Amino acid sequence: MANHDFVFTSESVSEGHPDKICDRISDAIVDTFLAVEPQARCGVETLVTTNCVVLAGEVRGPASITGERLIDVARAAIREIGYEQENFHWRTAAIKCLIHGQSTDIAQGVDASGNKDEGAGDQGMMFGYACSETPALMPAPIFYAHAILRALAEARHAGRTPLLGPDAKSQVTLQYANGKPVRATKVVVSVQHSDRIETEEVREIVRPFVLETLPPGWMCEEENFLVNPTGRFVIGGPHGDAGVTGRKIIVDTYGGAAPHGGGAFSGKDPTKVDRSGLMPRVIWRRTS
Questions:
Q1: Is 244 helix (H, G, I), strand (E, B) or coil?
Q2: Neighbours of 247 (CB within 10 A)
Q3: Which CATH number applies to 6-14+128-237: 3.90.550.60, 3.30.300.10, 3.30.1370.10, 3.40.50.1820?
Q4: Quick one: CA dihedral 56, 58, 61, 62, positive or negative?
Q5: Is residue 110 very low, low, confident or very high in pLDDT (cuts 50, 70, 90)?
Q6: What is the set of active-site residues?
Q7: Hey, which of 26, 176, 189, 230 has its CA 20 to 30 A from 117?
């Protein structure tokens, strides 16, 4: 970014956000195929809504990986996230598998044969860069937005925040001075919670995680620290909002700090350039 004074905002979503549940399930299915057959092909989509999951897409891999096994993989992913709610539970959710074989037209473009090298399954555009704003070489707004939700998720899995649920979002706005981030001007966290507590109690549960995540002295003014600003957030997850694979591609990359080609990553094997293009992204262009 140019060296001048500005503010920049990025958001993140938790592992329990409906769209991220779908990404997690789709990637778990890819992992299942690649673990058995490294040359397997996957283009998997997931949809979630109230206690219901739909698996779709196309694959090419071992016949031993049946639809029943993929349903078990989906249940395991939901269980790992921590969904055991009345309207979305890993054990009772209805899961339908509509995944079928990969198109032979796609396969002929991907497979190596004779003098033909292995190709990509489709065209696409990828953007990537590394910056010195954080140790992860990522822009600071998305880095800290992710870190807040990661800290909350770790606490939830450890049993330290029993009144908070899996569904959450964060938004961090940072002030830049001479092109460098210097402090937060606004922090927004929305997190699912038990009906036994109100918004102000949720705010005080969340506060220490934000303070511990941001660098010392970076916390925004009190009136700009917003927790569940729209009110109660008891109904969450797929019961509150349907989810689909690939709807959080800006969250998955640079939080809006770089262009995006439009392709999603989750549910795809490395022949899909949307995914394989991620791997070398930090060496394409370096900014200070």
A1: strand
A2: 17
A3: 3.30.300.10
A4: positive
A5: low
A6: 17, 19-20, 45, 58, 169, 233, 241-242, 247-248, 268, 272, 274
A7: 26
